[in-house]
Specification:
- By secondary structure, the chain is α+β, with helices and mostly antiparallel strands.
- The protein is built from one helix and seven strands.
- The chain has one domain (2-136).
- Strands 3-4-5-6-7 form a five-stranded antiparallel β-sheet.
- Strand 1 and strand 2 form a beta hairpin.
- The termini are far apart.
Length: 137
């Protein structure tokens, strides 16, 4: 049977139905892939935020340790904290007459590692030794 030049026999209807089913399947697969990628991206962003927070916590612990014991230079080995870990290095440098400390804190969770750095300078201007923060990165 033909209507306006279109053949409507059972074979053509079956092919059109199959094409529509294939298109619907591809759309559903696309939506599923988009959903999975979106969840993966959110999970990665959350891990980066947590790793950064853990790194900042390690930096805070190191700054407190230096406040309590100004000669402390040991840093911290990999230390478990919440769901991740942190590790702190302390590097001492001399710039002319100024003594500088660089504290580097690495925080990790899952496969993500974030790093925070803080530079301190020893201030002896008022007759007392005090570490003064010069930068945080």
């Amino acid at each position: 049977m033909k209507i306006s030049g279109v053949n409507l026999n059972s074979e053509t209807g079956g092919i059109i139905l199959r094409i529509m089913f294939a298109c619907a399947t591809l759309v559903l697969i696309g939506i599923a892939i988009d959903s999975v990628l979106h969840n993966y991206q959110q999970s990665g962003q959350e891990e980066h935020r947590k790793a950064l927070a853990i790194s900042e916590y390690g930096l805070l612990v190191a700054l407190q340790k230096i406040t309590e014991h100004p000669s402390w230079r040991d840093g911290f080995e990999k230390t478990v904290y919440e769901d991740g870990w942190y590790r702190v290095e302390v590097r001492q440098n001399q710039n002319g007459d100024s003594l500088l400390l660089t504290i580097i804190s690495h925080g990790g969770i899952g496969g993500v590692v974030e790093t925070r750095e803080c530079a301190l300078m020893l201030d002896t201007s008022e007759g007392d030794s005090t570490w003064v923060r010069t930068s945080i990165q």
